[in-house]
Amino acid sequence: MKLYRFLTGPDDASFCHKVTAALNKGWDLYGSPTYTFNADSQIMQCGQAVVKDIEGKDYVPEMKLSEQ
After folding, report:
1. DSSP 8-state secondary structure symbol assigned to residue 5
2. What is the pTM of this model?
3. 65: closest CA among 5, 7, 1, 2?
4. Rounded to the nearest 5°, which phi and psi values hold at 53?
5. What does the pLDDT look like over 16-49, one tens digit per residue?
6. How far apart are CA 32 and CA 2, in angstroms?
7. Residue from 8, 20, 3 nearest 67 by CA
8. How many beta carbons lie within 10 A of that of residue 48, not counting itself?
9. In whole angstroms, what separates CA 16 from the centre of its chain?
10. I need a surface site. Which of 7, 37, 43, 56 has the fewest CB within 10 A?
């Protein structure tokens, strides 16, 4: 099974830590990061897609992807 997540967060160290944690749990970067201005919060937002292959499991919509 291949899993996909899109990580988002403010343009600060917390976003980098979120991506680093995913990489250390076996997730791989997928594509380029994104960067946009959030007019409501007046801050820059980052995004990064990550993917992970899991053997021996079937996908079910109820699974928590961050725990895989």
Report:
1. E
2. 0.87
3. 5
4. -95, 130
5. 999 999 999 999 999 999 999 999 999 999 999 9
6. 19
7. 3
8. 22
9. 11
10. 56
Distance CA 14, CA 12 (A): 5
Three-state SS for 7-67 is EEEECCHHHHHHHHHHHHCCCEEEEEEEEEEECCCCEEEEEEEEEEECCCCCCCCCCCHHH
Calpha distance 65→62 (Å, rounded): 9
- Pairwise CA distance, residues 27 & 17, whole Å: 14
Q: Is the dihedral of CA 37, 12, 14, 5 positive or negative?
A: positive
Contact 11, 48 (CB under 8 A): no
Mean pLDDT of 47-56: 96
Here the tokens at position 42 are: 């007046």
